[in-house]
Amino acid sequence: MMRSKLRIFLILFSISQFVWAAEDIELPTEELAKETVLPVFERPGIVRMRNVTTEKRFEMGLNFGWLMTEPIFNTSRFGLSAYYHTTEYAAWGAQFYYNSSDFSDYTTQLKKLGLDFSGAPKPEYMLYIDYNAKLFYGKMSISKNTTINTHLMGLLAAGITKYENNSYPGISTGLGYKMYFNPKFSLRTDLRLFIHQAPIPFKDAAATSYKERIHYTNVLDMGLHYLF
């Protein structure tokens, strides 16, 4: 009986010593876990350095676009663009786009319902002065040895849209994104909203001309650009 009591006493004494020791453990603050840990680079200057510099340089591009909200005419367009980068944060340029002169597949279906658009004025081309505000320059690493440089841009443009019957002034706004394959070649993607007057493709038999209204067009453009 005495041996059992002694054994129980020794076990309780060992547990109390362990609890007491645990309460007195202290760790240095710098060794404690944190919610976020900043990466440590051997050469932090390389991370901050721009691999692609654009200030006081020219840029040319070949583009292809889709008119995403155009139900009547062909949604394809082809373009040329030229820019001059005044600083690392801004660029001014011009865009010329030639619209395909065909009708979309929807017009064939609508023609069966008695709607004929064969005489409707078609969009021919667009010429816009474009301002690019470079909002963000970043680097995307896809492997230990490969880094893709990127630009995120705010876009604002003004110009004319030429139809067969008239030219209409307009504005556009949107966002652009560029991925550089090397310091000169890049793939550019723009998503824009164009706002301008345009002829309504519907006309009464007694009408002598097409009425006009404000036209909104969402456009997605992609192109290859070269930086001189």
Characterise this structure.
- This protein starts with a helix and ends with a strand.
- The protein has helices spanning 2-23, 44-48, 105-111; strands at 57-67, 76-85, 90-99, 123-141, 147-163, 167-180, 185-199, 212-227.
- An eight-stranded antiparallel barrel has the order 1-2-3-4-5-6-7-8.
- A hairpin with a 4-residue loop joins β6 (167-180) and β7.
- 15% of the residues lie in helices and 49% in strands.
- The protein has a single domain (44-227), classed as Porin.
- The protein has 228 residues and is mostly beta strands.
- The protein has three helices and eight strands, in the order ααβββαβββββ.
- It is elongated.
- Mean pLDDT is 82; it is low at 18-22.
Task: Set out the fold topology.
Elements lengths: L1 H22 L20 H5 L8 E11 L8 E10 L4 E10 L5 H7 L11 E19 L5 E17 L3 E14 L4 E15 L12 E16 L1
Antiparallel strand pairs: 1-2, 1-8, 2-3, 3-4, 4-5, 5-6, 6-7, 7-8
Structural class determined from secondary elements: mainly beta
Sequence of secondary-structure elements: HHEEEHEEEEE
| Low-confidence runs of at least 5 consecutive residues | 18-22
In one word, what is the shape? elongated
Fraction of residues in H or I helices: 10-25%
- Major sheet strand order: 1-2-3-4-5-6-7-8
List the domain count as a whole number. Answer: 1
Q: Compute the number of helices.
A: 3
- Rounded mean pLDDT is 82
Number of E strands: 8
> Per CATH, which architecture?
Beta Barrel
Query: What separation lies between the terminal Cα atoms?
Result: 96 Å
Instruction: Tell me the Rg in angstroms.
Output: 32 Å
Let me know the largest β-sheet: 8 strands, antiparallel, barrel
What is the CATH C-level name?
Answer: Mainly Beta
CATH fold category name? Porin
